[in-house]
Design goal:
This protein has 27 helices and 22 strands. The chain is α+β, with helices and mostly antiparallel strands. Helix 14 runs antiparallel to helix 15 and helix 17 packs antiparallel against helix 23. The N terminus is likely disordered.
Length: about 900
């Protein structure tokens, strides 16, 4: 009420101010006339100089603003009354806009959070992802750095304020009689300094904590709360991770996470973790395991930094040809671009699709407004005849459109919350920063802008058309609608054709993705993922030697095999489609290969029974068995792709291959190929079969393998039994990464499934809106031409003729939209080629099938108005006219 009183007070003030200005001008004019100036010149000078009166200039400017604001408020009040009076129209239009604006808002929130929002670090545009390029393979292949290479790059470059390294690790935090598995990141001591983030509690790492013996750890905020009760005196405490003691030096802020886009690590460990009794600078050059990030110096651009690091890489390649021969250049990319590069195409596609759906909604509402404005021609004609200007009429209609759109925007925000929640459930967890997606300030600002722009967009055409109205013509025709002429029909037809064309573009795109997804689902991964349960155990290498590792897994697998419902059990690493991969070079005996030119392929270490449990077929030879122990003859197996690439038509069985991987007993032994197995999709279902070789775990203990258990029923029932078995053997060994093999397969296609489902949903809504648009047009046409139809029937026309006339009109518009949509689809679907598998961008089935769906929908939308037209009573119709 106080605000309302201020409004009326200011209005009275402006009225008094206007009278004061007029009085001042009159007095000034009379004064100048008395001085001998003509009245016209005197009045001009008085009006020019009236602002010199103290305080009047500023107040007069406000006086000019108030009438505009007052008039706009009146237009808004009138628009709200019109919407309230036409409840059915308003509800239909607002719901249509809510669907378009709500979906657009939800997708914009995803795009803004994942792609556009800056990284949460100071000056994030200076952070740069750094790799070296592997020239031994075709294409642009990024490669990690070894410790010596990293230290050389860090010391010799002139472009970066700092270069930091990081690499993932898993650790076991001992807590009483049990151990807790944690994800950790081993970082260089300048890591947090490069990112520009300081701990909220304690201190940063010191340079000497990169050296052996100075083991330090930084806790995450969540681990500090859950494991240490948010103790403020946590710094300087010692905790045991695995078989070593670490000093806690600090706690990171609550919102800190790095690497972004990966599972949030529970702690960060200094490089002393990898020192292990020796300085990392003296580690083996060529063991490339480090990810690197740098912060550019002020004024240095990316191209300069790349040239600087490439020069260093080239020098190292010449100095250390055995390990660095193929790494002669550096690869640099802004960290945000590196983080979002894989998901950009999918998000751009979704945003383009939702904007097309918004255009369909705008066209639909524009068509409704044009139909409604036809019934208001008499009202607007009267307003024009009594003095309303054309600009005032246009402004009023545009204000009504914007008010309608804003109401749709408010409803769209509510709808977007549900849509966003559903999208997040479908979205792969591998998408970076997905956990931070919400309807925030930028999203609300976007909604506001979209609401206003869409209101103007669908309101311009009806407003312009009604501004051309001739009041005299409307008055002569007795206030009947004069807006139903040829121009209106053209505009209506154009909107319906546009809706149909855009809908077909979305339908064809979704059809291509659906067919592609079906093809992907039918791809044979090379193994049987059904009824297989997987898990890992954190067995410490510092506690147990080579033989003890093998014995532990043998005993565990023996226990698991005796569990009810278990058909077979084994272990292996890496698991197919688990995002883990290792490549190790080798040398085939009898083939002369220069040092540094040895081929390299992916390797897996597996235990006896692995191929049977995974149901990977044996092509020739034999599988690993209990006889392939640590002291037995070194052996290996290869897949068919490996055999084709390196042996061609030769029989690979019995070939001798020296693998550059120690077995803990014999250093880099020469191994004999004893079997060939089928190809497995190790990296992705979309990738072709890649060469791979297998080593028996007893002869190559390099990491903790995945336990794989095949059951006769639901494998989830074994979760508790497996944990109990491990705890009984050693209560300090944690079990982690528990999952089904089906989940890994599903995860590998999660992004494709996400974009397919969302785009299909948008296409379905677009199809519905296009059908509603065609139905609205034909219904309006039936109303407008009811007199004509009544006369036709009265003069003897058959009702089937009327039915055929309306259906013909609808099918003609639908076919016009189909023709335009097919042309546009042929142009745009080429952009989908990188997202398709086993389907061409110009797939005839997708084009023809979706055109048929849209044609059927158009006929169904036309049939209802056609039936109503055919059932008109000519006597009643003519009486109403």
């Amino acid at each position: 009420m106080k605000w309302l009183k201020n409004v009326f007070r200011r209005k009275r003030m402006y009225r008094d101010l206007s009278e004061e200005i007029q009085q001042h001008i009159l007095e000034k004019t009379e004064s100048l006339v008395d001085q001998g100036m003509s009245r016209a010149d005197a009045e001009y000078c008085a009006r020019r100089d009236f602002g010199n009166v103290t305080g009047i200039e500023e107040r007069s400017r406000e006086a000019w603003v108030w009438p505009i604001v007052d008039s706009l408020c009146g237009d808004i009040r009138y628009a709200l009354r019109q919407l309230r009076k036409n409840y059915g129209f308003a509800t239909t239009a607002i719901l249509t806009l809510a669907i378009g604006i709500g979906a657009t808002t939800a997708i914009f929130s995803l795009v803004n959070t994942v792609l556009l929002r800056p990284l949460p670090f100071p000056k994030p545009n200076r952070l740069t992802w750094i790799k070296q390029q592997d020239h031994s393979l075709p294409g642009v292949i990024p490669a990690s750095l070894s410790y010596p290479d990293y230290f050389d790059w860090r010391a010799l470059n002139h472009s970066f304020a700092g270069i930091a390294s990081y690499t993932g690790r898993t650790v076991a935090l001992e807590s009483g009689a049990e151990a807790r598995h944690l994800d950790a990141t081993v970082v260089s001591t300048n890591f947090f300094d490069v990112l520009g983030t300081a701990p909220m509690l304690g201190r940063d790492f010191r340079p000497d904590e990169e050296k052996p013996g100075n083991r330090a750890v930084m806790l995450s905020y969540s681990l500090w709360q859950s494991a240490f009760g948010s103790a403020r005196d946590i710094t300087s405490r010692t905790i045991r991770l695995g078989d070593h003691d670490y000093v806690i030096v600090g706690v990171m802020p609550k919102d800190f996470q790095f690497p972004i886009g990966s599972p949030a690590p529970a702690l960060w460990i200094s490089l002393s973790e990898d020192a292990d009794g020796k300085d990392p600078r003296t580690a083996e050059r060529g063991f490339d395991c480090l990810d690197v990030i740098g912060r550019l110096k002020p004024g240095v651009i990316l191209e300069q930094a790349k040239a600087d690091l490439s020069l260093i890489a080239g020098n190292l390649a010449r100095r250390y040809p055995d390990s660095n021969k193929w790494f002669t250049s550096a690869m640099l990319e802004p960290e945000l671009q590196r983080l979002t590069g894989d998901v950009k195409p999918a998000f751009r596609l979704l945003f383009a699709a939702v904007m097309l759906m918004l255009l369909i909604a705008c066209a639909n509402v524009g068509s409704l407004l044009m139909a409604r404005s036809s019934g208001r021609s008499a009202e607007l004609a009267v307003r024009a005849s009594i003095g309303a200007s054309r600009a005032a009429i246009v402004r009023q209609l545009l204000v009504e459109s914007v008010v309608l759109s804003v109401c749709g925007g408010i409803a769209g925000v509510v709808l977007s919350l549900g849509l966003l929640n559903g999208a997040l459930h479908l979205m792969p967890l591998s998408i970076p920063r997905v956990e931070n997606v919400t309807i925030d300030g930028p999203a609300l600002l976007f909604v506001t802008a979209v609401s206003v722009v869409t209101g103007l967009l669908f309101g311009v055409l009806p407003a312009w058309r009604m501004s051309q109205l001739r009041p005299s013509q409307a008055m002569r025709e007795g206030f009947r609608s004069v807006a139903g002429g040829r121009e209106q029909h053209r505009a209506h037809n154009g909107l319906v054709v546009a809706q149909t064309a855009i809908s077909l573009v979305l339908l064809v795109s979704s059809g291509l993705l659906i067919r592609s997804f079906v093809r992907i689902q039918s791809v044979d991964p090379g193994f049987d993922p059904e009824h297989v349960w997987t898990a890992r155990v954190e067995l410490l290498f510092d506690k147990l030697n080579h033989d003890q590792h093998v014995q532990f897994y043998n005993r565990l697998l023996e226990r698991v095999s005796r569990m009810p419902g278990v058909q077979s059990a084994s272990a292996g690493w890496p698991l197919p489609l688990s995002d883990s991969i290792a490549t190790v070079s080798f040398n085939i005996r009898g083939r002369a290969i220069a040092k540094g030119d040895e081929p390299s392929e992916s390797v897996a270490v597996v235990m006896a029974g692995y191929f049977e449990t995974m149901r990977i077929p044996l092509i020739s030879g034999r599988r690993f068995g209990p006889q392939d122990g640590a002291k037995a003859m070194p052996v290996m197996m290869i897949n068919q792709a490996f055999a084709r690439k390196y042996f061609g038509d030769e029989n690979p069985l019995g070939k001798q291959i020296q693998v550059e991987l120690g077995d803990g007993v014999i250093n880099r032994p020469v191994r004999e190929v004893i079997g060939v197995v089928g190809d497995v999709k190790a990296k992705s279902l979309l990738a072709g079969a890649a060469p791979q070789y297998y080593l028996p775990y007893a002869q190559a203990v390099i990491t903790n393998p995945f336990i794989t258990i095949r059951t006769s029923g639901n494998p989830a029932i074994l979760h508790g039994a497996l944990r109990a078995a491990v705890h009984e053997m050693d209560p300090t060994v944690p079990v982690y990464q528990v999952s089904t093999l089906d989940a890994y397969v599903s995860k590998s296609v999660a992004m494709i499934r996400f974009q397919t489902v969302l785009l299909s949903g948008f296409a379905a809504v677009a199809l519905l809106l296009a059908g509603i648009g065609l139905y609205s047009l034909l219904s309006y046409m039936v109303v407008q031409r009811s007199r004509e139809i009544g006369v036709r029937i009265a003069l003897g026309a058959q009702r089937t003729d009327v039915l055929r006339m309306i259906l013909y009109r609808g099918s003609r518009l639908t076919c016009a939209g189909l023709g335009a949509g097919l042309v546009i689809s042929a142009i745009t679907t080429g952009f989908l080629s990188g997202m398709l598998y086993g389907v061409r961008p110009y797939d005839l089935i997708s084009f023809a099938g979706m055109a048929g769906v849209l044609l059927v929908a158009g006929l169904l939308a036309s049939s209802i108005p056609a039936y109503r037209a055919a059932q008109l009573d000519p006597i009643e119709t003519l009486r109403q006219q």
